[in-house]
């Protein structure tokens, strides 16, 4: 006769019921439960907390089986499984709506390329590319004694497209393409991201290319080299070239291009100081917010820009999360940051410790989007 408590019996019945209700073509529950019923100690690895370890081990076994039988389970159950952090993709939990959409809509690729160097392993688990923005999800094996996050362990990163440095695709004026590191789904993952500067005079990236990553890791002498295939899987996008301008005092602001993909919203703007003065605060840090016709605001991902040294002209390309649906119109609201009088150069902050901004309504632009 079993000596388990009624509570434990109920937990095991619930576990068995949950698994049995999953519409699969292979019944693996019986054998697992039979093994536990007849030899529960075989699953116990920690004698001090046998009940907890039994449940964790049993759940881990179930998860492995569910992964093996994924083609047979229902879409609802598949979506539920993807919410489990251990099993979900980096893009689905990274907090970037565009990358989440790429994962859900099958617009990303999952090469699962793994390289180990001096005992340190890096795995490229997911890649997204929409013709401009390239996002590379990388992970390391989970380690209990690792205090630093993967992002903290990574130092200098060098990228090559078909053997050529990504800076070969940069405009001649700046000769540089920025590389961003964004948080992943946990401390053992991060996202490497970069974009072309074709709207700033640079060369566009190929639709398909071989990306070589040289990742310098603290504590390891030589960089880790990883080769990753990258392909644009976006079938179509919406591109607008409105060339609409606004004026305010000595500021001439124009919207040169808007490109909307299921992953990214790219906005290219140009600002000229008409009195030939140079960009200084607050105009040096001028930004934009993006809204649809219903007032929904997009979240900014990153951006890049260029202006002449001590010059009066600045071109910016800023990237935002995608619209949920192609909007009827897009409103661009330029703003400036408000600075403290002392110390010089520091932003004024609100109660949430966010920089305080001031919109410039005279420079606001609303652009209709053709269906």
Describe the structure.
- The protein has 371 residues and is of the alpha+beta class.
- The chain folds into 3 domains: 6-82; 90-231, Sandwich (Immunoglobulin-like); 238-368, Sandwich (Immunoglobulin-like), CATH 2.60.40.1640.
- 18% of the residues lie in helices and 35% in strands.
- The protein is built from 7 helices and 20 strands.
- It has helices at 6-20, 29-38, 50-68, 75-82, 90-93, 97-104, 150-153, and strands spanning 108-109, 113-117, 120-129, 133-139, 154-161, 164-165, 180-183, 189-195, 208-217, 224-231, 238-240, 244-248, 251-260, 265-273, 287-292, 300-307, 313-320, 329-337, 357-359, 365-368.
- The strands form 4 sheets. Strands 1, 2, 3, 4, 7 and 8 form a 6-stranded antiparallel beta sheet that branches.
- The protein is globular.
- Residues 22-36, 40-61 and 64-87 have low confidence and may be disordered.
CATH third-tier fold name of the largest domain? Immunoglobulin-like
The CATH architecture of the largest domain comes to Sandwich
What assembly state would you assign to the polypeptide chains in this entry?
A: single chain
Total helices: the number is: 7
* Derived structural class: alpha+beta
The level 1 CATH classification of the largest domain is Mainly Beta
Low-confidence stretches: 22-36, 40-61, 64-87
Which descriptor suits the 3D outline?
globular
Tell how many strands the DSSP assignment holds: 20
* Major β-sheet annotation: 6 strands, antiparallel
Write the H/E string, N to C: HHHHHHEEEEHEEEEEEEEEEEEEEEE
Averaged pLDDT: 80
Q: Helix proportion of residues, in percent?
A: 10-25%
State the end-to-end distance. Answer: 70 Å
Number of domains: 3
């Amino acid at each position: 006769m079993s000596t388990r408590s009624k509570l434990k019996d109920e937990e095991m019945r619930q576990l068995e019921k949950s698994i049995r209700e999953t519409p699969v073509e292979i019944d693996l529950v019986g054998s697992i439960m039979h093994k536990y019923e007849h030899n529960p100690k075989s699953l116990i690895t920690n004698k001090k907390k046998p009940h907890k370890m039994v449940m964790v081990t049993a759940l881990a076994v179930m998860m492995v089986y569910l992964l093996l039988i994924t083609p047979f389970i229902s879409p609802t159950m598949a979506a539920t499984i993807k919410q489990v952090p251990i099993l979900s993709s980096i893009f689905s939990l990274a907090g970037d709506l565009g990358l989440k959409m790429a994962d859900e809509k099958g617009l990303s690729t999952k090469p699962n390329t793994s390289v180990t160097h001096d005992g340190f392993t890096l795995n490229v688990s997911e890649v997204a590319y929409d013709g401009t923005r390239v996002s590379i999800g990388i992970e390391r094996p989970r380690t209990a004694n690792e205090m630093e996050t993967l992002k903290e362990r990574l130092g200098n990163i060098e990228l090559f497209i078909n053997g050529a440095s990504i800076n070969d695709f940069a405009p001649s004026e700046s000769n540089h393409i920025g590389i961003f590191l964004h948080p992943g789904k946990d401390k053992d993952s991060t996202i490497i991201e970069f974009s072309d500067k074709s709207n700033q005079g640079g060369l566009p990236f190929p639709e398909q290319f071989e990306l070589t990553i040289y990742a310098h890791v603290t504590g390891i002498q030589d960089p880790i080299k990883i080769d990753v295939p990258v392909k644009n899987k976006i079938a179509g996008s919406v591109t607008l070239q409105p060339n609409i301008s606004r004026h305010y005092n000595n500021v001439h602001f124009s919207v040169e291009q808007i490109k909307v993909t299921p992953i990214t919203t790219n906005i290219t703007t140009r600002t000229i100081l008409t009195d030939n003065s140079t960009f200084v605060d607050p105009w040096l840090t001028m930004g934009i917010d993006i809204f649809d016709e219903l007032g929904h605001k997009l979240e900014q991902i990153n951006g890049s820009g260029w202006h002449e040294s001590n010059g009066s002209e600045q071109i910016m390309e800023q990237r935002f999360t995608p619209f949920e649906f192609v909007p009827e119109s897009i409103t661009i609201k330029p703003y400036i940051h408000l600075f403290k009088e002392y110390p010089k150069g520091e932003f004024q902050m609100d109660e949430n410790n966010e920089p305080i901004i001031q919109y410039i309504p005279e420079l606001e632009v609303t652009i209709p989007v053709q269906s």
